[in-house]
Design brief:
The chain is 57% helix and 10% strand. By secondary structure, the protein is mainly alpha-helical. It has a domain of 26 residues. Strands 1-2 form a two-stranded parallel ribbon. The termini are far apart.
């Protein structure tokens, strides 16, 4: 499933709990850890430090 969102429509994803929720949804859809950032940034502006912190503890 392709997801394309115009940049002006993107929501900021900065809270760790929201990032974790997005990661869990993507992983439940079959995305592996190597592709999570690519997929999540198609839909959101992501705080990369928070994303990396969540991934390292996942």
């Amino acid at each position: 499933m392709e997801r394309f969102v115009e940049d002006y429509q993107k929501r900021r994803l900065t809270e760790r709990v929201d990032i974790m929720t997005a990661i869990n949804i993507l992983m439940s859809q079959g995305f592996d850890e190597d592709h999570l950032l690519d997929e999540i940034t198609k839909v959101f502006y992501v705080d990369l430090d928070a994303f990396n912190d969540v991934i390292s503890h996942h």
